[in-house]
Amino acid sequence: MIRKFLKDRRAASQLISSAALIPILLFIVASIANISVVSNMQTLVNEAAFEGARIGIKSDTPEQTAQMAVVNFGDGITGWKIGDRLSVITSLKNDMLTVEVRYTFYLLGGQQKVLIGRSSLRIGDTP
């Protein structure tokens, strides 16, 4: 049966063209997965920064409260602890609390990606 299949030129050429398409299709699927992960994580980082600023402006110690709110927001996400993968920078100037969140993760294929989200709110505002 294999000999018959290999003697048929059309079947052999279809097999070769199908085999050539497999890496291209895998690349497309991996790219879609990476784009989805980056989009999801960027949304998460932006929301964490906003949530930190929102909770921080309502506190007597806005910078410390904002950092704790960011860490608590991402509870359960791999590496979501202040250290190697997550950093939270807060600043308070002219009654304006700014929260910057940086999160590092790896895409399929091992490429490192750093996402940054920022949010600024004025103390006394109610978002």
Write up what this structure looks like.
- By secondary structure, this protein is α+β, with helices and mostly antiparallel strands.
- Helices cover 52% and strands 24% of the residues.
- The protein has three helices and three strands, in the order αααβββ.
- Strands 1-2-3 form a three-stranded antiparallel beta sheet.
- Helix 2 (9-56) runs antiparallel to helix 3 (62-73).
- The longest helix is centred in the N-terminal third of the chain and has 48 residues, at 9-56.
- It is rod-shaped and about 80 Å long.
- The protein starts with a helix and ends in a 5-residue tail after the last strand.
- The mean pLDDT is 88.
Task: Give structural attributes.
3 helices, 127 residues, alpha+beta, 3 strands, rod-shaped
